[in-house]
Automatic annotation (TrEMBL):
Keyword Nucleotidyltransferase in annotation: no
Record's GO cellular component terms: cytosol
Reactions this protein catalyses: dTMP + ATP = dTDP + ADP
Its biological purpose: Phosphorylation of dTMP to form dTDP in both de novo and salvage pathways of dTTP synthesis.
A GO term, aspect molecular function: ATP binding
Family: Belongs to the thymidylate kinase family.
Protein name: Thymidylate kinase
Gene of this entry: tmk
One GO process term, biological-process aspect: dUDP biosynthetic process
Amino acid sequence: MNQTSARGRFITFEGIDGAGKSSQIEAVVSVLRERGIAVEQSREPGGTPLGERLRDLLLHEPMHLETEAMLMFAARREHVARLIEPALSAGRWVVCDRFSDATFAYQVGGRGLDAAKFDVLESWVHPGLQPDLTLLFDLPPEVAASRVRSTGVNPDRFEREQRDFFVRVRDAYLERAHRAPQRIRIIDADRSPEQIRAQIEAIVAERWFA
């Protein structure tokens, strides 16, 4: 593949906290690089110096729901402008831990943000840009919560939410996947890491390397 002439691909990983997606991102990045593909690995909120500062506020500072949503999209706008679009335009692929599907799931589904307000922010911040492929790690909230507790890491304010919150987040993710079945592939995350990795590699290979 000519990395200088073709537009890069945009792959995102989604799922509730504890679903195990983060541990699989490195594997996908490694597989792509083994194929000679230039890859940018990033995360949201974050991905840029300003985005990382906003991430710290979002994960640890209590705030109004609409403030939370707008800060999420402010970090995303910087991310799109500074990293994602320049990389894709240069032929590099971007593999990102979360994107706008997460905001729909957490702020609209989990917190109850008006979906119309989400739609306005999404169309304003990245009009015409959606991931080429989204891997949604689906897991029962009680299993995810157990995994989060087992890490021993001090949880952020989202990870401290109750089970009902994560039930709503999971339902919103599945609703989003139902709306975009060609883009969003659901991964059963209640399996071994080896089984999950094999499925992801097969999906990526089928999509671009078959």
